[in-house]
Design a protein that fits this description.
Number of domains of chain A: 4
Oligomer: homodimer
CATH architecture of the largest domain in chain A: 3-Layer(aba) Sandwich
Number of strands of chain A: 18
Number of helices of chain A: 19
CATH class of the largest domain in chain A: Alpha Beta
Structural class of chain A: alpha/beta
CATH superfamily of the largest domain in chain A: Nucleoside phosphorylase/phosphoribosyltransferase catalytic domain
CATH topology of the largest domain in chain A: Pyrimidine Nucleoside Phosphorylase, Chain A, domain 2
Shape of chain A: globular
Helix content of chain A: 40-55%
Largest interface: A-B, 50 and 50 residues
Strand order of the largest sheet of chain A: 1-5-2-4-3-6
Largest sheet of chain A: 6 strands, mixed, barrel
Amino acid sequence: MHLKVKHIGMSSGGPLIAIINKEDAIKLDVHALDRIKIEKGSKEAIVAVDIAKTKTVKPGYISLFDEVLQIFSVKKNELVKITVEQNPLSLYYIKKKLDGETLDKHEIDEIVKDIVSNELTEIEITSFVCGCYINGLTLYESAYLTEAIVANGKQLDLDAYPICDKHSVGGVAGNRTTPLVISIVASAGFTIPKTSTRSITSVSGTADTLEVFAPVTHTKKEIEQIVKKTNACMVWGGALELASADDKLIKVERPLNLDPEGILLASILAKKAAVKATHVLIDIPVGRGTKFEDRKMAKRVERKFKQLGKLLGMNIKIILTNGSQPIGNGIGPALEARDILTILQSNGKLGPQDLKKKALMMAGILLQMVGVKNGYKRAIEILESGSAYKKFKDIIKAQGGNPNISIKDIKIGKFKHEVRAKNSGSVKYIDNKMITKVAKIAGSPEDKGAGIYLNVHLRDKVKKNDVLFTIYSENRKKLEYSVSLIKNISEIIRID
Amino acid sequence: MHLKVKHIGMSSGGPLIAIINKEDAIKLDVHALDRIKIEKGSKEAIVAVDIAKTKTVKPGYISLFDEVLQIFSVKKNELVKITVEQNPLSLYYIKKKLDGETLDKHEIDEIVKDIVSNELTEIEITSFVCGCYINGLTLYESAYLTEAIVANGKQLDLDAYPICDKHSVGGVAGNRTTPLVISIVASAGFTIPKTSTRSITSVSGTADTLEVFAPVTHTKKEIEQIVKKTNACMVWGGALELASADDKLIKVERPLNLDPEGILLASILAKKAAVKATHVLIDIPVGRGTKFEDRKMAKRVERKFKQLGKLLGMNIKIILTNGSQPIGNGIGPALEARDILTILQSNGKLGPQDLKKKALMMAGILLQMVGVKNGYKRAIEILESGSAYKKFKDIIKAQGGNPNISIKDIKIGKFKHEVRAKNSGSVKYIDNKMITKVAKIAGSPEDKGAGIYLNVHLRDKVKKNDVLFTIYSENRKKLEYSVSLIKNISEIIRID
């Protein structure tokens, strides 16, 4: 059958989809989401077909979403040849998972490949996620999934051993240990190529904060050069193209808050495998408002991480940390960057000491893991001697940033609002999620200068009218809106 | 936040969806598929939001699919107010099902209500189906689902007892017992208001075939009038609006061939409950190419149907019939209609005897169920006396058809192709699925005169060059295409 092309002029959000009229669907004997092949000359594309019930697509026409046109450019009104295609094999494997069977390496690889190349629809990806959620993944399946995500992205070519890496599971505002840990470990002579994400649900992703100091978007080749020069990098992970599978899984997981453990573990470890990490420290913050509200759950995940590490040839160490309150004072890219620079420039004397201590502890453990005796002591020496700051500047310079950036160079929002204590007492509770929300509404992380500066932590004594935190924004309207969210301050910070 | 309306000029295929730019999504703090409320004056709509990554939707704009515009008409470039809404409660209930919990009546009702009113996205409906598929539904859950589907559609108001009904699970070509069974049972004085579906995957749905005799699309009120006049009706079920939930479930079930038993049972029994049936006969064809390839599976479903019937206050009887070959000779609306009319007009003497026998058996059982002694004998009397034909004509007339329609009035496709035996022997196998496919490609059921006339059944002796079947089409091209499908006749009908 030949059909005339129409451009929808819209993205499907991922999947390769074409729309045809019901009459043509009957002639082809295809149903919604069956696969068809579109051919024009030597070009071809296999897409899922959706069927227009209304007159949006007339008989004789085929409407193509942007994603299809990107891989198969064809002009409006050009005739293309349509034939029916078999459904992708990955659908059978997804069905197997729903039926409670265990998938082998090849089957998982097919599924990930088809997700990445947009060959599966959201209905099909959702079915896979539900199958993994209900029936679970074996350790081997999680390992295969990790390998498949890596195989369908890119890996850094680094000629080094050991290669260190760190990861925080997230959910804690201000938890910006990365620049400190990376600077210390790299300064000790170990390779630590860190890729970070931009914010998804948090106030600021590590990549958003690092961008205050230097560009974080680099090609694979550039990253390899930066690491060769400095032992380290602090870049956005996008260049390794692992996010493709991740993003698509996250989209279908979100509405129901499904986060199948096996997929979560694979997604994290794939990022480590992509930099060929051999020694990995994973920080799991535990407590109200974090991903792991109870310690038992976190312990179970710890075990799985370790077992999975073995299968993948990675030495993994887990620390369960206190995630019941924000770390540091600044929350938001510029405010966090100021905290970090203050610690580094003062050789650890100034700046938020909770953040400094956590970073030193993590760097110390990583150093022990790769054979340094008294790792924690060594980490302190490196910070206090100024070596960490020197290494930090080297990395910033290698990434194209200004190594001599000063605190004053880091601009924070010119509109601000102070939130004060309604009564005296001791800080009993800080609502991570609300702090995050207020900072986001104020403009973080898109507006680098937006966010919150937090003056108190748990168990601090405060007096009535003390400033608890200050909201910063680059835009008066956003500030007003974020302030309006704080109807009852005692629900965000409770003081008894 | 206020945004300017754009019309996408396309259907989403069901769900209420709006698209906004990433910048506005950040300001609203919403993610893909979160819910927003759109307001304009006193009108409002709650929709799922999708987020444009490309420049398709510019900041400050909101693009609406046809479905949203249907319930919330608003002109291009009009400003609407946008606020963030809570996700529907049904999402929590779907999550419960995924977590292996049992849902109560209220929870299932919420899910069905939200599916019907387009408030759930395909990702969310898929999650529900996967949860039902893997974790199963209890009998009570299936009963609640049945009731919810009925409650979210319409019920016939009939002042009668008992009310009979029948159903064939499908998968067998030509299995058109309905007009015969309905005419016989109604002629015996019992109420039997039959609603049928149009073809989904088959060559012809019962409604498609009945349409050869009379209009089948009637309002609820009209259907009630027809039943009052004749004890019966043979109409398309669309007027009762049960299909809405069904269609949406089927769309997400299809790609992976998921057909959760609990949903299948509920979907069938909801159609019976909507006509307030008290005595229901269900025909489950068993055999290669049908829904139930093995007898064990069919037996299990039989048990469930009966138990579910008890909960719903329906007396249900199941027959497992031989589904290994087509029933009757005609396959396709006009060809089936000719078979039926031939049997009725000849008082059972002419026409396909296998179809006649099956219909008599079914009518007999239904009569027994409502207290008629020797039901089968009574059914034969009614057919042979001409009472069944008379009742058939009454129903056709009440539905607005021509009761005096003759065989010759029923036009069949003028293009035909005979398929002949390559060798002599006995018919060992007939491929239901291929027969269906060839008839569909020839134009059935959209072209009423298209289809297949089958000359042989299993175990028939044939000689080389005997005509095995004839393909009819209203269109030369369609005929050619359907003929080209038959590369190897022995794969469709095997003669040894």
